[in-house]
Here is the input.
Amino acid sequence: MPHPSDDDLFNSSTMTFGEHLEELRTCLIRAAAGLAITVLLGFFVARPVVHLIEQPLRKALGDYYTERAIEQFDAWQPRRAGGAALPYSRSEVIDAVEQHGLSFELRELHADRLARVLGSGTAAVADGDTAGMFDTESLVPVLLWQPLSRDSRVSITTLSAQEAFGIYVKAALMVGVVLASPWIFFQLWTFVAAGLYPHEKKWVWTFLPVSIGLFLAGVLLAFFFVFDFVLDYLLQFNAWLGLDPDPRISEWLGFVLILPIGFGLGFQLPLVMLFLERIGVFDVATYASQWRIAVLVIVIVSAVLTPADPYSMLFLAVPLCLLYFGGLSLCRWFGGNVETAARPRLAAQATKASQ
Here is the structure.
C-alpha cells in the first residue's frame, strides 16, 4: 500500500505546538464535563454500589473467622482426661457453616453452675458453697451460634459521622469513572488523532473500541477475580501475626478505586505498543530485543499502580507481561512497521517552532 512521501507528510502537518495545547485543553474540558455528568448519575446508584463493594470484604472476613473457628474446634482438647467432649461433631459444624450460613464461637462454662442458676433463679453462688478456688477442669465446651450476617466481627465499621458521606461520594465517583471511561477514552484518542497525519488517523478509530474493551476487562478482572486472592492473602497475614482485622469501609473503598483503575490502564499496553509501531516510533525488532527491560519496567509500574502487597502486584504484572508479548505478536501480525514517520514529524515541528 503506498504511503505519502516525506514532502507530503510535511505539508499535511498543520498543527503548531500552541494548537496542540489548545486541542488538549478542549479535550480535557469535554472529558471533565462528561465525568461530571456520570458522577451525578452515580449519586443515584451509590447506595447499592456501596453494598456491592462491601460483599467481597464481608465474604473474606466471614471465611477468615469461620476458618479460625474451625481450627479452634479441631485443636480443642478436654482440660482433664475423660472430660466433657465437644457437643457437635466436625461434620455437623461444617454443615452448619457451609449449608446454613451460621458462624460460631467456642466457649466454656460450668454446666452445673448454669443449671443451678437456671433452675433456682439464683444469680450467684455463696462463698460458703465452694472452696473459693476456680475449678477449670470442670469447664464444659459450648458453641455459640448465630447467622454469619449478624456476626459483629464481619461488620464493616466507620469511625466518624462524616465518614459515611465520604463513602457515598467516593462510590458515586467510582461509578462516574467507569461510566465515563468510553467518553474519556474517546477524547484522549481524539487529541491523539489531531496531531497525526491523514494516513495514521485511521488507526485511532480502530483502536478506540478495543481500548475501551481492554479498560473494562481490566476493571472486571480486578473486581471479580483479584480482590478475593488479595483479601485472602492480607487476612492470612493478619492471622500469621495473630491480629484480628477490623476494616473500615473508607479504606476498603480506596483500595477498590485504585486497583481496578490501575488494571484498566495497564491493559492498554498492547494497543499502545501497536499504535507506536504503526506511527513509526518503535519497531518490532526493538520490542523483541528489549523485552527484558520491558518486563522490569512492568514490574515497577505494577508495584506503583497497586497497593503494597505482592499478590496484587503479581496479578497485574503477569497479565501485563503476557499482554506485552501479545502486543509484540500483534505488531508482527500486522506485517511489521510501516514507513517511519517519526523523523519527518519531528523535523516539521522543529521547523514550525523556529518560524
Summary: Residues 6-59+156-354 form one domain.
